[in-house]
């Protein structure tokens, strides 16, 4: 359902994505790994329709991003590497705010349910009182409001404690299976990647990840 074909992306003279291609289908959890600066976030932004490749094309369900990015955007959930939530609003107010922007309407109990699914129970706490890991969880809950069929997560477990990380990993696996969601996510924690992902895609030229994750690259 996802096809990335020969994508190139440069910033100035620096080529970050060099003829990058991959395919993926619904129900898969794919780990995107590579060293710092390899281009993982750049690729996720392109897949989230928030940035355009210089050349090459991305297709979702056979329809190109170039022509159909507005329709695709409605089906995509994206958690950026830099947390993007309103600091002066409470957890629940953030959910309500983003729910208003969503093409899929959600009731208040449904919004609370999304928070409870990932064990974020401080619904009436202002975001600026939350820890970094809790903010990340909130960002994840926000990305699920539109019932995405394609979920892109840029380091969703960075700074999150071990117990919550395991819970989020389990949650993502279950979601891929139950909702037939395609999930692509980045992490620098290789044991987590091995535990959560069906398969790994390495980005960049460095052979280090290809060697240590050889069994997971299918
Ligand atoms: N908006 C931008 N303008 C200029 N250069 C950029 C921009 N965004 C990213 N880069 C550069 O592109 C390269 C890839 O960055 P990217 O954020 O995609 O890497 P990454 O694999 O996500 O790294 P990390 O593991 O540190 O998150 C880096 O050299 C970065 O400095
Ligand atoms: Mg990154």
From TrEMBL:
Alphabetical keyword list: ATP-binding, Nucleotide-binding, Transport
Xref: Pfam families: ABC_tran
InterPro entries, alphabetically? AAA+_ATPase, ABC_transporter-like_ATP-bd, ABC_transporter-like_CS, ABC_transporter_ATP-binding, P-loop_NTPase
The ABC transporter domain covers which part of the protein? Answer: 2-217
Q: Name one GO molecular function term.
A: ATP binding
Q: Report TM segments.
A: none
UniProt lists the family membership as follows: Belongs to the ABC transporter superfamily.
- Can you say what this protein is called? Putative ABC transporter ATP-binding protein YxlF
Its source organism is: Jeotgalicoccus saudimassiliensis
> Lineage from the top down?
Bacteria, Bacillati, Bacillota, Bacilli, Bacillales
As recorded in Swiss-Prot or TrEMBL, the protein's gene is named: yxlF
């Amino acid at each position: 359902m996802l096809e990335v074909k020969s994508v190139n992306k440069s910033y100035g003279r620096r080529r970050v994505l060099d003829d990058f291609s991959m395919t993926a289908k619904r129900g898969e959890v794919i780990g995107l790994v590579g060293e710092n600066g390899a281009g993982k976030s750049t690729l996720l932004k392109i897949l989230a329709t928030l940035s355009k490749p210089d050349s090459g094309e991305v297709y979702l369900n056979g329809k190109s991003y170039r022509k159909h990015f507005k329709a695709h955007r409605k089906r995509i959930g994206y958690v950026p590497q830099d947390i993007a939530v309103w600091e002066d609003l409470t957890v629940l107010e953030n959910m309500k705010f983003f729910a208003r922007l969503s093409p899929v309407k959600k009731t208040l109990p449904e919004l609370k349910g999304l928070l409870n699914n990932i064990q974020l129970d401080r619904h009436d706490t202002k975001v600026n009182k939350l820890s970094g890991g809790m903010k990340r969880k909130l960002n994840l809950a926000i990305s699920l409001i539109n019932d995405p069929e394609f979920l892109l997560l840029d380091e969703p477990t960075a700074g999150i404690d071990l117990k919550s990380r395991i819970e989020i990993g389990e949650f993502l696996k279950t979601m891929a299976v139950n909702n037939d969601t395609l999930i692509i996510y980045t992490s620098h924690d290789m044991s987590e990647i091995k535990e959560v992902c069906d398969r790994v895609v390495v980005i960049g030229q460095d052979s280090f990840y290809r060697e240590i994750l050889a069994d997971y690259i299918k």
